[in-house]
Amino acid sequence: MNFLEERIVKDGVIKPGNVLKVDKFLNHQMDIELFNEMGREFKRRFEGVEINKIMTIEASGIGIACIVAQHFGVPVVFAKKTQSINLDGEMYIAEVESFTHKCTNQVIVSKKFVNPGDKILIIDDFLANGCALQGLISIVHDAGAKVAGIGIAIEKGFQSGGKMIRNLGFKLESLAIVSSMDAESNTIEFMPQ
Ligand code: 5GP
Question: How far is residue 116's CA from residue 123's CA, in Å, rounded to a whole number?
Answer without folding.
Answer: 19
